[in-house]
Amino acid sequence: MNHPALSFGAAASAYAEHRPDYARAAVRWALDAAPGPRVLDLGAGTGKLTAALGADVIAVEPDPAMLGELRRALPDVRAERGSAETIPLPDGSVDAVLSGNAMHWFDMDAAGPEIARVLAPGGILAGLWNVVDDQADWVAELARVSGSAAIGPRDTPSGWRSATAHLPEAGSPTRFESPERAEFPHGQARTADTLVATLSTRAGMLVLPKPERSAALDRIRGFLAERPETASGTFTLPMSTCALRARRL
Question: In terms of Cα–Cα distance, which of 22, 90, 40 is closest to 241?
Answer without folding.
Answer: 22
